[in-house]
Design brief:
- The chain has 405 residues and is an alpha/beta fold.
- The protein folds into 2 domains: 104-146; 153-399.
- The chain contains 18 helices and 7 strands.
- The strands form 2 sheets. A 5-stranded mixed sheet has the order 5-4-3-6-7, with helices on both faces. Strands 1-2 form a two-stranded antiparallel sheet.
- Strand 6, helix 9 and strand 7 (252-255) form a beta-alpha-beta unit.
Length: 405
């Protein structure tokens, strides 16, 4: 038996043994690990041969021995002999200079784990356990940092010219700022396009939630190509509706009923809450606008003396609170509350709950961006009963709601 046959026999026996015992065939001590080393070194030699063409040799360039580098791969950490040239002008593609982690699939794996809310320490432990590779905290940080340009590109991508429904709301996180822990509002714009598909069209980070900042958000959306919005669902933030109307003057505003109810109950005594809610349900659950307004009159007659602030709030905001009565059940369920965007929040917080305080705004945005990528994988189909919804929107808004027949 010649030497090559003996080597093959040894590798085969080792592979069978590792396969039976459940050990990794491609890990640091795996039977197939030498094949990867051999392949990489042969590929580097091939690249060097192509680099030292006739023009290079005329300039006096030639091979100049070998160096070595340790490379982390999905098959474990291996040591590679790297060819060198006299002019140091060789720039290999398969294993670039100063590259210590091979294969984008490992980077993708690391970024995916980070997007699931895992800490860098947990990711390091997971990679070592699964692939027999030790990766430092600094290296992991460098890999995660690669998504920053993608975040910025996503934030500025072009938008469709028209969205049927948008929900605008904010969630809040803690961020380090100059050594102090500060609160940050993450402004979210969740939209439904003309085909009935949901899309988170932007996230913005600011120190606080306010109508002035929302105005800048809406201005940015218009600059990115959004020209029209049919219905905007918002909370009852002062000046919010007016800010939207300055950018999209034809929009129908629907204030969130759930926000209004929560704010009202803050001022209702505990002993009255059940009775008050029973009366209030006859208002916002009424089948028609006329009946809702009749029941609102009854609510006022019964409770205005005891809770004038609450009744006054419903009266002042009634035009924005009652817009959904113009539609049937399918559209009402979509727009009477900002629950659609709050559903996104619940999924996002599953990812961010392990991060008590973020080191900076971009660290917060990176993780939320990755969360959006994962969550939006489920948004491939139109909303339920979209054909009926789209037909009603067409009747209500005419040519502003394009439909292909």
């Amino acid at each position: 038996m010649d030497r090559r046959s003996q080597e093959y026999q040894i590798m085969r026996d080792k592979a069978l043994s590792q396969l039976r015992s459940g050990e990794s065939l491609t890990g640091k001590d795996g039977a197939f690990a030498p094949l990867l080393k051999e392949f990489l070194e042969a590929a580097l030699d091939g690249e060097m041969a192509a680099h030292l063409d006739e023009a290079e040799r005329r300039q006096g360039n030639k091979r100049n021995g070998r160096g070595s580098k340790r490379v982390k791969t999905m098959a474990g950490e291996i040591e590679i002999e790297t060819p060198q040239d006299r002019h140091s002008s060789f720039t290999p593609e398969i294993l670039r200079k100063r590259e210590t982690i091979l294969a984008d699939n490992m980077s993708s794996k690391i970024i995916s784990l980070y997007g699931m809310g895992m800490s860098l320490r947990d990711i390091s432990a997971h990679i070592e356990e699964m692939y027999d590779v030790e990766i430092s905290h600094n290296t992991l940080s460098e890999i995660i940092e690669r998504i920053v340009p993608k975040v910025k590109e996503w934030q500025s991508r072009p938008l469709e010219s028209m969205y049927t429904i948008v929900w605008l709301d904010a969630m809040h996180y803690k961020v380090k700022d100059g050594g102090r822990t500060e609160s940050r509002a993450v402004y979210n714009v969740l939209a439904v396009n003309k085909d009935g598909r949901k899309e988170l069209i932007r996230m913005y980070v600011s120190e606080s939630e306010g109508a002035n900042f929302w105005l800048s958000v809406l201005t940015d959306l218009k600059a990115r190509g959004m020209k029209d919005v049919l219905i905007a669902c918002i909370d009852n933030l002062t000046g919010f509706a007016e800010a939207i109307a300055t950018i999209f003057p034809q929009v129908i505003i629907q204030s969130c009923i759930v926000h209004q109810i929560r704010n009202s109950l803050k001022y209702i005594a505990s002993k009255d809450k059940k009775e008050f809610m029973d009366d209030l349900k006859t208002v916002y659950q009424a089948p028609t606008l006329d009946l809702a307004e009749l029941n609102l009159d009854k609510l006022e007659d019964k409770w205005v003396q005891k809770y004038p602030v609450v009744i006054g709030s419903w009266r002042r905001n009634w035009d924005k609170l009652s817009a959904y009565f113009a539609y049937d059940e399918h559209i009402r369920r979509l727009i009477y509350t900002t629950n659609a965007v709050e559903g996104f929040y619940r999924q996002a917080r599953k990812v961010t709950k392990t991060k008590g305080v973020f080191p900076n705004d971009m660290a917060l945005m990176k993780l939320l961006y990755l969360a959006v990528l994962n969550i939006s994988k489920k948004w491939t189909q139109p909303l339920p009963n979209w054909a009926l919804t789209a037909g009603q929107l067409r009747i209500k808004f005419g040519e502003r709601m394009p439909m292909e027949l």
